[in-house]
Amino acid sequence: MPTLNLFTNVPVDPVIASDILKDASKAVAKIIGKPESYVMILVNGGVPISFAGTEEPAAYGELISIGGLNPSVNGKLSSTIADILQTKLSVDSSRFYIKFYDVERPFFGFNGSTF
């Protein structure tokens, strides 16, 4: 159920995308405390993004989860995902926003139903 949707203006090579998917999936599961089998990661590269008036490498993320989020967890997630983006795509952490959504079960669909 935790879903991380990442957008970046950096073109993402399939090998790098695979590394980001693996690293982010493990990190999200560990930090939130949910089984990795529930985690979904999406990487959208080459998306037109302007940040602070420039088109230098930047990224935006949205993390949605049913529970498990709080200020401490969100801080760890933000830092960890920023590190992954810096390492894999050279996106500086000062050019990355992430929004967290803690949703209730009826507002998250899976397997033709809701949780």
TrEMBL record:
<dbReference type="GO" id="GO:0050178">
    <property type="term" value="F:phenylpyruvate tautomerase activity"/>
</dbReference>
<keyword id="KW-0413">Isomerase</keyword>
<protein>
    <recommendedName>
        <fullName>L-dopachrome isomerase</fullName>
        <ecNumber>5.3.2.1</ecNumber>
        <ecNumber>5.3.3.12</ecNumber>
    </recommendedName>
</protein>
<comment type="similarity">
    <text>Belongs to the MIF family.</text>
</comment>
<dbReference type="InterPro" id="IPR001398">
    <property type="entry name" value="Macrophage_inhib_fac"/>
</dbReference>
<dbReference type="InterPro" id="IPR014347">
    <property type="entry name" value="Tautomerase/MIF_sf"/>
</dbReference>
<dbReference type="Pfam" id="PF01187">
    <property type="entry name" value="MIF"/>
</dbReference>
<dbReference type="GO" id="GO:0004167">
    <property type="term" value="F:dopachrome isomerase activity"/>
</dbReference>
<dbReference type="GO" id="GO:0005615">
    <property type="term" value="C:extracellular space"/>
</dbReference>
<keyword id="KW-0964">Secreted</keyword>
<keyword id="KW-0202">Cytokine</keyword>
<dbReference type="GO" id="GO:0005125">
    <property type="term" value="F:cytokine activity"/>
</dbReference>
